[in-house]
Structure prediction request, 250 residues.
Amino acid sequence: MAVLEVKNIRKSFGKTNVLKGVSFSLEKGQVLAIIGSSGSGKTTLLRCLNFLETPDVGEIWVDGKLLRSGSEKLSEQQVRENRLHFGLVFQNFNLFPQYNVLKNVMLAPQLLKKGTAKELEERAKQLLDQVGLSEKLDSYPYQLSGGQQQRVAIARALALSPQVLCFDEPTSALDPELTGEVLRVIRGLKNADSTMTVVTHEMEFARSVADVVMYMADGVIEEIGTPEQVFGNPQSEKTKAFLRGAHEKF
Ligand SMILES: Nc1ncnc2c1ncn2[C@@H]1O[C@H](COP(=O)(O)OP(=O)(O)OP(=O)(O)O)[C@@H](O)[C@H]1O
Ligand SMILES: [Mg+2]
Prediction:
């Protein structure tokens, strides 16, 4: 059974149709890479999945449970519960500047009373170990490099054990030499069987880590398939043009 199933999501802002009917599904442990040019609707799609945006039409299913149908009005409580299915990592880390690394990771499970203080601390330390930051538990965000901050953000997103992890260009705010360490962590999560959706401009990464590659153009899925299909043998002219451009640029 699919962990995530998205059916016919549509979203407009005023007269701008941003998502024009997006459907896909993801099996447990699969990694979906979303590629596409600026303004094609990638962030809007992730925001709809995370209930930061309300789609006009469409259904979102997680583990066989319907979280949203169309634009039905959900209570704040329902929205909060729905969000727990997804872990979100943004481009700009968005750590809490006033808390140290350990507290950044522990805060949400603490607020939701997910265990005793000792259990939560153990779990947070284990997650920080997983992203290679055992040495930085007491540091504050301003004392960390961008790559380290992003790895804290990943540990924080994992803290509530979401069914699906969503990344929105997790490396695009980083200097090139820091990109690798973040991509390595994401690669490691795949080996640990996490289900992930990653919006990325890193074509080599998408090619080597993704199980499914989705190319979005003008609010629709222009092409979707395995990396071999989409990168190796693209069918649509738009995909071909985009990949040629990406090849020249990166
Ligand atoms: N809150 C909003 N209000 C109005 N228009 C919006 C809003 N959010 C997004 N848009 C518009 O929706 C379109 C898609 O934006 P989106 O951020 O999803 O693109 P993207 O594929 O993530 O682009 P990028 O690669 O630059 O991040 C753009 O034309 C954008 O201006
Ligand atoms: Mg975006």
